[in-house]
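Students often ask why we bother encoding 3D structure as a string. The short answer is that it lets us treat folding as translation between two languages. Here is a chain of 59 residues written in the first language.
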Amino acid sequence: MSTVGKASYQFALRMPDNLRDKIRETANENMRSINSEIVFQLERIFSKSSETEKADVQA
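And here it is in the second language, the structure alphabet:
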């Protein structure tokens, strides 16, 4: 991995064509680059996962 910015890393990612197409379509709908869409969706997923874990611990 090579450092692009202070906290950003660049790496190759292999994925099925149909998934790439879905990401591209969603990125276009949200007026984001494909990279920004992937980062946004990952942050959303991990945020929800963290909230679920906290709720499970409190239950």
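Translate back mentally: The chain has a mean pLDDT of 84. Keep this in mind for the problem set.
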